[in-house]
Amino acid sequence: MPSTTTNGALSPYSTPSIAPIELSFPLPKSPNTTVHLHLTNHTTSLLLFLTTTTGESISTPSSLGSFVYAMPDRTNTRNVLSTPLYTRESSLETATRLAKLLARKMGKPVYVGSSISFAGGGMGGTVEEEMEGFERIVDVVLGVVGRGVEGRNGV
Questions:
Q1: What's the DSSP call for residue 14?
Q2: Phi, psi at 75, each rounded to 5°
Q3: Any residues with CB less than 8 A from the CB of 7 and at least 6 apart, and which?
Q4: Are 38 and 48 in contact, with CB atoms under 8 Å apart?
Q5: CA atoms within 13 A on the CB side of 7
Q6: b/e for 112-151, b at 16 or more Cβ within 10 A?
Q7: DSSP code of 44?
Q8: Which of 143, 123, 126, 140 lies closest to 32, judged by CA?
């Protein structure tokens, strides 16, 4: 049975999904780069795996990437605790930022496995390209789990 919030409304993100959700979408400034995500929304946690492909790399498998665990701090709602479980230097920062942001916005623990790369983007992986890609990923994930975006402040 779905839980309710303090005002009695149904809490849409508390109902676990029975099967993982798999989506893909192009990056905003790089239509030839596609983000693939595999999302499982459990009652007590969220499990997310991300990777990217470009037109040239479709047949080439990507590396495993980093795997990060993050959970909201119960004593300070603005603070999020995280730890890397498996590290790949090229993807650790992005996986950690994404895990922390999702844990804070959803109020539950999040596991993020990420091997996304913005290097194949239209502008070669600039900061603007990475930020827009990051925001797009957050928007899609929060939209899928049924919770609105409450701002776009990075962690």
A1: G
A2: -90, -20
A3: none
A4: yes
A5: 2
A6: bbbbbbbebbeeeeeeebbebbbebbbebbbebbeeeeee
A7: S
A8: 123
Q: Contact at 8 Å (CB) between 72 and 108?
A: yes
Helix axes 89-106, 127-144, angle to 10 degrees: 40
* Furthest-apart CA atoms within the chain: distance in Å: 51
Residue with tokens 């590290």: 87
Residue 114 to residue 85: CA distance in whole angstroms:
12
Tell me how far apart the alpha carbons of residues 143 and 139 are, in angstroms, rounded to a whole number: 6
Q: What is the pLDDT of residue 39?
A: 94
Task: Copy the structure tokens of residue 57.
Answer: 């790399």
Q: pLDDT by residue (tens digit) across 106-145?
A: 999 999 999 988 776 666 667 888 888 899 999 999 999 8
Give the pLDDT confidence of 22-77 residue by residue, as tens digits.
Answer: 999 988 777 788 899 999 999 899 999 999 888 765 556 667 899 999 999 989 88
